[in-house]
């Protein structure tokens, strides 16, 4: 057909990607399996810890955390009421599973994202090399992450954590770099003149001043992690996303709406608390 693209100019790099994944599985399969087992133990341990807490104690802890972040009793009561609503809907256990997944994914984002943001803020070459990678990570459809992750780790909670990590990492890296780049250089120069080393300038001046931007990045990472809950349920991660997926598959609108509202409630609780901690205090 005259309107079709010429076959002589067509090229596919899918075989190269497949060979790379096969090579990783062949040479590093044992290491990946060990990492998967350790991460699974962490996830299961956190879930069991959350289940061991009485429901009222967990609500009390969230209320105290919200009050400490915002110093507002009304906001603390409102956020506690949102979590109570999830329990009233009979989704408390699913809530704990989703919360454990989000906490582990977000913790890994912090461990990787903040150091990467520091590197990007202090190394122009690293910034030029890594920013395009972050663009690809942030714009690539989430379902694409599932294919190599499933090949490397199989079904279950662990591939869901890694897929969520890849999807939620870029905002934290970018906003950490942005917060550090916006610091007045004269402050760091004054600290250097007073004899502060590089690590002291970073820990005592740069990071505290960039904290609002870092917390905004953390907030965005948490929101993106929650948006992956339904996608993660497709590869064996249980939780609130599992009920949304079941509602879609069985055309059970009520079940899907209940689980969806529970995800929204959890997102609002985490969002309000993290935003409150990110605001500068007097």
TrEMBL record:
PANTHER family registered for this protein in UniProt: GLYCINE BETAINE/PROLINE BETAINE TRANSPORT SYSTEM PERMEASE PROTEIN PROW, GLYCINE BETAINE_PROLINE BETAINE TRANSPORT SYSTEM PERMEASE PROTEIN PROW
Record domain ABC transmembrane type-1: where: 95-274
Places the protein is found: Cell membrane; Membrane
Record key words, sorted: Cell membrane, Membrane, Transmembrane, Transmembrane helix, Transport
Transmembrane feature ranges: 49-67, 73-92, 99-122, 142-169, 209-235, 255-273
InterPro entries (alphabetical): MetI-like
Family, as annotated: Belongs to the binding-protein-dependent transport system permease family.
Topology of this chain in the membrane: Multi-pass membrane protein
Organism the protein comes from: Pseudomonas muyukensis
The protein's name: ABC transporter permease subunit
Main location: membrane
């Amino acid at each position: 057909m005259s309107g079709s693209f010429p076959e002589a100019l067509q090229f596919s790099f899918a075989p190269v990607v497949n060979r790379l994944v096969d090579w990783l599985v062949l040479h590093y399969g044992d290491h990946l399996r060990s990492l998967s087992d350790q991460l699974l133990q962490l996830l299961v341990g956190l879930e069991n810890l959350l289940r061991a807490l009485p429901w009222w104690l967990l609500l009390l802890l969230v209320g105290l955390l919200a009050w400490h972040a915002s110093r507002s009793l009304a906001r603390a009561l409102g956020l506690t009421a949102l979590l109570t609503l999830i329990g009233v809907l009979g989704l408390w256990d699913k809530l704990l599973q989703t919360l454990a997944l989000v906490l582990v994914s977000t913790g890994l984002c912090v461990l990787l994202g903040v150091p990467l943001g520091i590197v990007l803020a202090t190394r122009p070459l690293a910034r030029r090399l890594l920013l395009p990678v972050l663009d690809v990570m942030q714009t690539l459809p989430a379902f694409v992450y599932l294919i190599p992750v499933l090949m490397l780790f199989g079904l279950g909670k662990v591939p869901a954590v890694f897929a969520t990590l890849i999807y939620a990492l870029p905002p934290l890296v970018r906003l950490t770099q942005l917060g550090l780049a916006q610091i007045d250089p004269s402050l760091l120069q004054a600290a250097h003149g007073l004899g502060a080393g590089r690590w002291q300038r970073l820990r005592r001046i740069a990071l505290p001043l960039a904290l609002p931007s870092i917390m905004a990045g953390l907030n965005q990472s948490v929101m993106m992690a929650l948006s992956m809950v339904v996608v993660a349920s497709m590869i064996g991660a249980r939780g609130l996303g599992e009920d949304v997926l079941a509602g879609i598959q069985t055309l059970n609108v009520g079940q899907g709406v209940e689980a969806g509202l529970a995800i929204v409630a959890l997102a609002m609780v985490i969002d309000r608390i993290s935003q409150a901690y990110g605001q500068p205090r007097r």
